[in-house]
Amino acid sequence: MAGRRDFDLIVRGAGPAGAAAAMTAAxxxxxxxxxxxxxxxxxxxxxxGLTGRAMAHHRRIFxxxxxxxxxxVRREFAFHAFGQDLGMTRDAPPIHLAMRRELxxxxxxxxxxAGAVDVTGHALDLDLGDPAGPVLFNQTMRLxxxxxxxxxxxxxxxxxxxxGQAFDRDRIGFALEIEHLGADPxxxxxxxxxxxxxxxxxxxxxxxxTTVGVGGIMARNPDLKAAMKAYMARLAIPEGARVKxxxxxxxxxxxxxxxxxxxxAGDAAGLVDPITGEGIAHALHSGELAAQTAxxxxxxxxxxxxxxxxxxxxxxxxxxxxxxxxxxxxMFRRALRPxxxxxxxxxxxxxxxxLRLLAGETDYAPLMRKTAMRMPGFAARALFGR
Length: 386
Hints:
The chain is α/β, with parallel strands linked by helices and 386 residues long. It has two domains: 3-73 and 94-167 and 251-318, FAD/NAD(P)-binding domain; 173-248, D-Amino Acid Oxidase, subunit A, domain 2 (D-Amino Acid Oxidase, Chain A, domain 2), CATH 3.30.9. Helix content is 37%, strand content 23%. It is built from twelve helices and 20 strands. β15 and β16 (199-205) form a beta hairpin. α1 (16-27) packs parallel to α3, α2 packs parallel to α6 (280-299) and α6 packs antiparallel against α7 (306-313). The chain is globular. The termini are far apart. 48% of the residues are buried. This is Geranylgeranyl reductase family protein. InterPro entries: FAD/NAD-bd_sf (IPR036188), Geranylgeranyl_Rdtase_fam (IPR011777), Geranylgeranyl_reductase (IPR050407). Pfam families: FAD_oxidored (PF12831).
């Protein structure tokens, strides 16, 4: 593609949020360009877990019960916290495991098949100075539209252009991950709270190998490599695999997800759960909501209205992430940690509520109530100021 092209909407970033936005916009009849500097398939750091919530969003947006990629279903979870065994949960709501390389490629293909214009494999700069709307350009092409949805990841160049930084370094998370070739699909999925400071570790066995990682708030983990090494030793996984790293929003969402005629979606808007690490579900949903509000504003010839409507549409997600950050305080503040460990270990219903949350069958409010009920009075007072 060369020269100037005018669109109703440009989507920058073709991960799950961008693909969902492009798919939704195309179904709504918009002329939409899907832009990414990389061609697909491409590798992506991610545990690859698709929760029930993510599957429901996929079904609604893409129109099929499940992505047309290899999926492995897991229902067994082993929980650990700060070196202690918290118990096993069997027959939990299912988690589907996918390779992000395959999943993201499939979602992009679906969006393109729906009518989005393929502008992947091109590095484009952003010009926010045109009064007609955002412009993406390089030496050979110029794309214009009244609105831009930026789904360009946690390191979002768009957010950096808008706000001077893509994220707050005091609040951002960071994760390290490997793909271990040893396959053990019969082993349960494992979550280790506290494998990193104010974070956790994960072990996701698949038929092709095992994804192992640790992640936590970066400011509290000056040596995350040491935490990763210790976690691998705990799991008896030999060193030698290539370690990949990436920033994670960890619940540090932007209350105003954009500026002017630019909407931020997915990781670029900070929409990652700080407890479960779930990002794909929020990416799909926010991409859909961004496209829907953009389409309404474009139909009304009032593109500036999109951001306010989008911010309102994101309130339920923002509310859940706010509660998640509160629960994180219970889990990781040293004074409250023993009460959390005891409650989670002794209460099967608390573990099951956590898994229902992960599966998208509930929100944070019931989990918060159950957690507070099981904690001693001093911990509840320390948390809620009562």
